[in-house]
Amino acid sequence: MEYNVVGDASIMVNEDNRGREEIRHGASKGCGKSKDMWGSFDKTISEVENSLDMLHDRVEYVHQQVGVMTSDNEVMQDNVKGAINKLGGDLRLEMCGLQEMLLGEVAKLHEQV
């Protein structure tokens, strides 16, 4: 592919397309090429373009699914963080309860001694 600059605008010239058009012109001028061959060629190009469109649609679908999975993953991470924080709070409360119980037992031992 070449880039030709005209003024401030860049125009991309696809050599393959230009070459294809020149060959088609030559074929229509009687260079011995069959119109059936060009029809088959055009059909093949159309099939390739359709396949590319289908591939593009699939890529967009997968991209959407990745977005959904990312969102679901973020929700799950938030849920896990919340559960860990709740368990941490419960553990702190339990530790305070155990500490009070231990201090009570130590106080009983001091009274007995």
Uncertain ranges: 1-14
Principal-axis shape equals rod-shaped
State the strand order across the main sheet: 1-2
- Roughly how many Å apart are the termini? 97 Å
Major sheet characteristics: 2 strands, antiparallel
Please give the count of helices: 2
Q: What proportion of the residues form beta strands (DSSP E)?
A: 5-15%
Task: Assign the structural class, choosing from mainly alpha, mainly beta, alpha/beta, alpha+beta, or little secondary structure.
Answer: mainly alpha
Oligomeric description of these chains: single chain
* Whole-number total of structural domains: 2
Mean pLDDT: 78
What share of residues is helical?
A: over 70%
Q: Nearest-angstrom radius of gyration?
A: 37 Å
Using brief descriptors, characterize the structure shown:
9% strand, 2 helices, 2 domains, rod-shaped, mainly alpha, 113 residues
